[in-house]
Amino acid sequence: MNLPEEVGASWGSSYRLVASEKWKAKSASMGRAVTEALVEYARPVPGLQILDLASGTGEPAISLAERVGPTGHVSALDLSADLLDIAKTRAEQRGLANLSFHVADAQSLPFPDQSFDLATCRFGAMFFGDIDRALGELRRVLRPGARACFSVWGPFEQPYWRSTMGVVVKHVGEPAVPPGGQDPFRFSHPGSLSSRLDNAGFIRVEEISRSLPWPWPGSPEELWEQAQAVAAPFRALLDRVPPEKWPQVTADVLAEIGKYADADGVHFEAIVNMVSGTKS
What we know:
It is a single chain. The longest helix has 19 residues, at 24-42. The protein is 41% helix and 23% strand. The protein has one domain (5-278): Vaccinia Virus protein VP39 (Rossmann fold, 3-Layer(aba) Sandwich), CATH 3.40.50. The protein is an alpha/beta fold. The model is unreliable at 1-12 (pLDDT under 50). Helix 1 runs parallel beside helix 4 (81-93) and helix 7 packs antiparallel against helix 11.
C-alpha cells in the first residue's frame, strides 16, 4: 500500500502479521476470490508489461506474472520494502522470474513514459494521499490503449465489516475512521473512483459492483485476532476501547461472526467495486 510516511511503518508491520506463518494460508484463502476477480477483470495475456500498484505481499502481481508468462513482465510497486521482501520470497517459491519489485510511491512512479500495457491495483487506491496525482502518474506510464484496473471496498455496511469493526463502533460511539484518516471506504460510493479516472483523462471508464466470497477457513476467534492484527486504518478506533469494555466487545464480535460460521470456517461475502479506465 502506498501510504504517507507517518503511517507506512505501522501498515507494513500489520501486514507482516498477515504474511507470517501463523496466518499466511488462511489470509491467502480469504482474499483469493477478490484477487482472481481482479485478474479476470484486467484480462492479462502472455507478453504484456504490467504495473501492479500497492502490491503488498504479492497479489495480484504473482497471479498476473503466471498469466503473462516468460515473455511478459510484472513490476510490483509498494511503499513498504518489508512487504515487497515477502512478495519476492513468494515469487521465488513459485519459480517466477518475470517480476521486479520497486519501493516507491504511486504518486511519483520511477518509470519512463508509456512503459506498460496494463495496470492493476488491489485495495490500494483508497490510501493514496493524492489520488489525482497518482492517477496522473499512472496515465503517464501507460501506453495508449492500456487499461488501469482497480478493486476497492464497497460500503462499510457489509457482513465482514459490520461483524468486526462495526461492533466496535457501536461500543465506542464514534466513526470507524476519524476525519482525515486513512479510509478503506473512500471510494465505496458508486462513481466516486470513476469520476477521478474521468478527471485524470482516462476514457471508457467503467465500474461494476461484485459480491465475492470472503471466507476464513478457521474459527471466529482466529478471524477476530487476525482482523485486529491487520487493522491499521482502524487502529485509532481500537485504541479508544476502554480496557474494561474489551471482554464485552470481543463477546459481541464473536457472536456476530458466529452467524456466518460453521464447522468449515466463516463464510462472508465481500462487496467490492471493480473500476477501470483506458488511456487514450
